[in-house]
Specification:
Layout lengths: L2 E14 L9 E11 L5 E5 L19 E3 L2 H4 E6 L6 E11 L5 H21 L1 H4 L4 H24 L4 H9 L6 E10 L3 E10 L2 E16 L3 H30 L2 H43 L1
Antiparallel strand pairs: 1-4, 1-5, 1-9, 2-3, 2-6, 6-7, 8-9
Helix pairs in contact: 2-4, 6-7
Length: 295
Amino acid sequence: MGIDVSITLQDLKCIQQDRGSEGSYPFIWPTMVAINTSTANVIVVGSEAPSLARVILANGMKSGDTAAIPSTVGVVTRRFDEDLSNFRILAIVGLLEKRDLSDDEILGGFTAFPGALQDGIEANLGGLASTDPMVFQNAINAITSSVHDQVMNAVKARMSDTEKLEYCAGTFIADTVIDTAHAEISTDSTFQLTFGNTPGNESNNYIIDAAAQFKTVTCEAELDAVNQDTVVVNQLDAELAQMKKELAQAPASEKKEIEQDILEFTKTELNPAKAKLSKDTAALNACRAGSVAAA
């Protein structure tokens, strides 16, 4: 029996931003990090979808504004079949601001981010485990610096020579990291991630409201069966729709043969698949009802 751990980032609040009347164009890179305290194995879960590399949460965000975070970018989930007591689980989120990078260039950094984060954490596990606040903060600083360097190297690798020269001259501004925030989670809870409002970054201050959920997975085999059945039925329905389309377009001399094919297909393939889906759905509902009663 597994447990699905989900982190949901709900909304971004801008307390203060440094872009003046122009406002900011913030976006996030969310991850879930699981550190196995027994094996020192580090797992980083983040999105790999290129379309999520730069989802702008607000255009021209001003101090006092709040923006909802869409679930496509704000929800990170992982199934744990292992004993969760052996893990430290953290939400780690980078908050960035759109500037001059192209979609392809920011995608380079987005793609490198999870791996860079994993490398940084693995290199600083001792510091992260320390109860000394200064040692712990030094580990966070080292991870942040390492991740920033790897991400920027990935971005620069996609920049043109002209852009690199303009970047060095200060006339081409790469998308900037406002701040990175983290929170450790262990139970169903709500929490906040704070960005900025620190020495050296006083002019930016953002807050993300978030929630963590730990959900025991019940009736997993029954659910898998229903999911598989649904895929099969959908595929067969699509095949049937294509056969009917061919029937409608066929000359009269071919219609009878196609009609027979449709009847045979429905009898031998589609109806049995639907019957199996119905049977497995009933088994899933019975399992879930039993789980509720047992609870």
